[in-house]
Amino acid sequence: MANETHPPKPVVKPEDRELAHKREEQAAIETELAECELRAENLRAELGAFERRYLHFVGSCYAELDELNAQVAERIAHAQPNNERAQRAAREARARAGNTKSTAGEKSEQEPRPFQASPELKRLYRDIARKIHPDLTTDRDDRAKRQDLMAQANDAYEHGDESQLIKILTEYECSPEAVKGDGAGPDLIRVIRRISQARSRLSEIEAELQELLRSDLHQLKMRVDEAEKFGRDIVAEIVSKVEEQVAQTKRRLDSLEHRESA
Fold first, then answer.
1. pLDDT-based confidence at residue 215 (cuts at 50, 70, 90)
2. Which long-range contacts (CB under 8 A, 24 or more apart) does 17-24 make?
3. What's the pLDDT tens digit per position in 142-182?
4. N or C: which end of the chain has fewer CB within 10 A?
């Protein structure tokens, strides 16, 4: 029986083996970064929606209260033109009313909805963060394009726009910037730098997450969410208390008006 001969196995160059290893490492860190980006963006969206909802109910009440307090202070100042303390109190009350009105904004007719991302929305955003994030490229022009696309993706995510996220992802994957170069040596350098950039961005986004979690707005949202589990509506309770103060201030303003007309 003739001896069977087998073709020699192709020799794997050290740089090709190292490139394969680094690409696995890159894929892992980029997946972790995409998850972290998603958590941060989801938290930002939740806090933004909570703040809009809070201001919709509470902010407008405080704006009305501060406006009434300013009117009271101004009537007192008008009745006491030589009282510098009354004049200063009126100026401060008017400034405070202006600031509160600016912060609260105009009350919309439609109640803002809490933010809640669907699994598909999260998947799309995760894919975009993994493939498009600007910190994953060393090319200046590509980075600028990615920054613009990520800003669009963040806005689409906060508004729950799945179709826009699909459009962003599809357009980038078909763009020239997505084409990889040839050669193990240059590829290895690019992969190593991308890993370094991804690790740096991961540290930044984790720090941003911690800052968001420590924010006063997040602490308030936690209190509201926890109270809701026991059937309490803290926002409604705050609104009720402020409305009581509004009613009291209106009565005081009416009393000052009657006193002036008497």
1. very high
2. 18/188, 19/184, 19/187, 19/188, 19/191, 22/188, 22/191, 22/192, 22/195, 23/191
3. 888 889 999 999 999 988 899 999 989 888 877 665 656 67
4. N
Distances (CA, A) of 202 to 18, 50, 129, 188: 23, 26, 12, 21
| Cα 125-129-130 angle, rounded to 5 deg | 115
Q: Token pair for residue 246?
A: 């509004």
Among left, alpha and beta (phi > 0; psi -120 to 50; other), residue 183 is left
Whether the predicted pLDDT of 33 surpasses 80: yes
CB distance 86 to 74 below 8 Å: no
The Cα 194–Cα 191 span in angstroms is 5
Residue 228, CA distances (Å) to 58, 73, 151, 171, 231 in order = 17, 38, 33, 42, 5
Residue 166 contacts residue 124 (beta carbons within 8 Å): yes
pTM exceeds 0.90: no
Rg of the Cα atoms in the chain: 29
